[in-house]
Amino acid sequence: MKAAALKAWRAGAALAVWAGVALQFWLMVHGRSGADLAQAVLRFFCFFTILSNLAAGTVLGASALAADGPLGRWAARAGSRVAAAAYIAITAIVYHALLAGTWDPKGAQLLADTLLHSVTPALFLLDFLIVPPRETARWGSAWKALVFPAAFGAWSLLHGALSGFYPYPFLDVASRGYGAVLTTMALMGLGFYAVTLALTGLQHLQLKLALRARRAISA
């Protein structure tokens, strides 16, 4: 893909991602004020869906609009792309496998839900597939992608213990107990690690094929 086309593609994809995040934020804070507004803003950032979409939007947007700056260079790093891809892939898998059937959004909420859980994962993973990496992520660094989900889990338990609010049913200690929740978190950690390893392997394959294609063209 040519540089101009790639930039346009990523700018459009980033716009779609940020539109979903902005719409969900508006839906959560609209009509609120004072302490109620502050609580809604805090809870907005308590959802892994929001955080993974922010990561995807930042990587896509920085790659399109600030490729030569510090943020753009960070976004182009193999580790950054693999981690963001793993987070947004898990977001889509968990939502469609466990959560989609638990509610029935309508109107603007349905649009936000579709953008956050379906459109963003599809756009980001498509970008991951069609754009060969400049480098490949290191196998031994895959564990680093687990730091953020682990921090999210710890924060969810701490915040939930203080406020009684848990962003997802499988993290609800009040109804499931710490044993069940911690077991779920451990299993999800293994899932994160497996997806990260799979995406790392995919990057290695992509780079190998890209190098082979370049050699064939120059031969």
Can you lay out the helices and strands and say which pair or pack?
Elements: H1 3-29, H2 34-44, H3 48-65, H4 70-76, H5 78-99, H6 107-130, H7 147-163, H8 173-218
Task: Explain this structure.
The chain is mainly α and 219 residues long. It has one domain. Helix content is 79%, strand content 0%. It is built from 8 helices and no strands. It has helices at residues 3-29, 34-44, 48-65, 70-76, 78-99, 107-130, 147-163, 173-218. Helix 3 runs antiparallel to helix 5 (78-99), helix 3 (48-65) packs across helix 6 (107-130) and helix 7 (147-163) packs antiparallel against helix 8. The mean pLDDT is 93.
Briefly, what is this?
This protein is mainly alpha-helical. It has helices at residues 3-29, 34-44, 48-65, 70-76, 78-99, 107-130, 147-163, 173-218. The chain has one domain.
Q: What's the tally of helices?
A: 8
By secondary-structure content and strand pairing, the structural class works out as mainly alpha
For the largest beta-sheet, the strand count, sense and barrel status come to: none
Helix content: over 70%
If you compute it from the alpha carbons, what radius of gyration comes out, rounded to the nearest whole angstrom? 19 Å
Report the portion of residues in β strands: under 5%
- Please give the domain count: 1
Separation of the first and last Cα atoms:
21 Å
H-E string: HHHHHHHH
The overall average pLDDT, rounded, is 93
Envelope shape: globular
Unreliable segments of 5+ consecutive residues = none
Number of strands: 0
